[in-house]
Amino acid sequence: MNESPHPDFLWRTPEPRRAYDVVIVGGGGHGLATAYYLARNHGITDVAVLERGWLAGGNMARNTTIIRSNYLWDESAAIYEHALKLWEGLAEELDYDLLFSQRGVLNLAHSPSEVREGMRRVNANLLNGIDAEWLDVDEVRKFCPIVNTSPDVRHPVLGATLQRRAGIAKHDRVAWAYARAADRLGVDLIQGCEVTGFDIAGGRVRGVRTNLGRIGAHRVALAAAGHTSVLAARAGIRLPLQSHPLQALVSELLEPVLDCVVMSNAVHVYVSQAHKGELVMGAGIDAYNSYGQRGSFHIIERQMSAALELFPIFARARVLRTWAGIVDVSPDASPIIGLTPVENLFINAGWGTGGFKATPGSGWVYADTIANGRPHPLAEPFTLDRFTTGALIDEHGAAAVAH
Ligand SMILES: Cc1cc2nc3c(=O)[nH]c(=O)nc-3n(C[C@H](O)[C@H](O)[C@H](O)COP(=O)(O)OP(=O)(O)OC[C@H]3O[C@@H](n4cnc5c(N)ncnc54)[C@H](O)[C@@H]3O)c2cc1C
Questions:
Q1: DSSP sequence for 242-304
Q2: Statement: 19-64+171-240+331-399 belongs to CATH 3.40.50.300
Q3: DSSP state, residue 171
Q4: Are 369 and 375 in contact (CB under 8 A)?
């Protein structure tokens, strides 16, 4: 495996050509993975990824890197488990050390209803062939001794679900690995190229307008996360997406103290310790809509008090930095993947607070959808028309993030 993961030049920096078969808008994890699988799985290499900033400057390298597939509904379980299986071979396939670590993810339950819900989820996961266990409070203590399991706190721990195959990976390395692999297969990665509009004629997309000029395209694929609804509006499409800041923070570097991932819906915090040693913590979204990648201080304050309730041992750790990314939240907290009312304009969005874990699976099914002009079977339940048919896939309970 490649031992020097961050050389200066991992990909070319080409000038954009006048036209491509496929233009992907957005150079985050999903856009890059889609480009890679278009080339690798479908032999489609006349592809450009247009990124208005720099590759992985959006949510891809701002997230808290949690990977798991323990979603409730069959449709979600299928797509997230497809992604997890791809994660399990990804470092070898891309020849890049992604620091993928299947260290186990605990989802804590703090009330009788959360216990019931957690047990239901374990059973649903097992029926879908996904590894899942229910731990009582003694087992939680054994698995993660630094969690405060005292009964005398505001939200006492009553048990937890555990997915042992779940874990974390190093997000920016994942982006670089996909970018290098896509570049090697002939994909043009164009940074500093903002899509400002679409050329549409006869109900069909013909190309994009950018700050670098017009670029023709047979097919255009949106992968712009929190900015998707703004972009789609420029193509005359109104999407059921809300854009919110989602914040995270890291502590100073610590000795190894936490060797699993701990999430809590009720307390609203999720914590892991990165390979380098910093604690990585996320919270709930800022409630207002925004495109500013910062968020409000009071959210961080609440997040810290929640974290300290669960982990009193962190009381003297110092916060090193905080930031936010703009997440695209759909009404049922599930993604939107598929075709749009504009012919040959495709959408992959709405992953909200949980799309990092889906990166390989999302890229895989989106590439297939673009290549074949119809939703991949795993994407069929996630098309845009579910918001008119009412066939929603409500996964609000799946995240430790309130929205
Ligand atoms: C703080 C935080 C914590 C999170 N934690 C987790 C987690 O633990 N686990 C998990 O699974 N998920 C998590 N997520 C969610 C996850 O990061 C996202 O769902 C996922 O990264 C979105 O896909 P992406 O990587 O392609 O998005 P992005 O990296 O945001 O990519 C979209 C790209 O589109 C570009 N773009 C936008 N508009 C234009 C335009 N007009 N022209 C050209 N380019 C454009 C942007 O610059 C951006 O680079 C978290 C998100 C945040 C913010």
A1: EEEEEEEEEEEE--S---SEEEETTTTEEEEE-TTSEEEEEEEEPSS----S---HHHHHHHH
A2: no
A3: H
A4: yes
Which residues, given as ranges, of the chain have pLDDT below 70?
1-8, 399-403
pTM over 0.90: yes
Residue 167's contacts (CB-CB under 8 Å, 6 or more residues apart) are 66, 67, 68, 100, 101, 102, 103, 104, 105, 261
Which pLDDT does position 6 carry in this prediction?
A: 57
In the beta sheet, which residues pair with residue 325? 246
Question: pLDDT by residue (tens digit) across 133-163?
Answer: 999 999 999 999 999 999 998 889 999 999 9
List all residues whose CB is within 6 A of at least one atom of ligand 1.
Answer: 25-31, 50-53, 56-60, 62-66, 194-195, 223-225, 227, 231, 246-248, 282, 325, 327, 351, 353-357
Find out whether 343 and 68 touch, Cβ atoms under 8 Å: no
Task: Identify the pLDDT of residue 397.
Answer: 81
> Rounded CA gap, 244 and 353, in Å?
10
Rounded distance, CA 117 to CA 72, Å? Answer: 10
Q: Which tokens belong to 363?
A: 């890229």
**Annotation: CATH topology of 101-167+242-329:** D-Amino Acid Oxidase; Chain A, domain 2 (3.30.9)
CA–CA separation, 67 and 193 (whole Å): 30
- To test the pocket of ligand 1, the residue of 269, 353, 359 to mutate (highest count of ligand atoms within 8 Å of its CB) is 353
Domain ranges of the chain: 19-64+171-240+331-399, 101-167+242-329
Q: Is 78:358 a contact under the CB 8 Å cutoff?
A: no
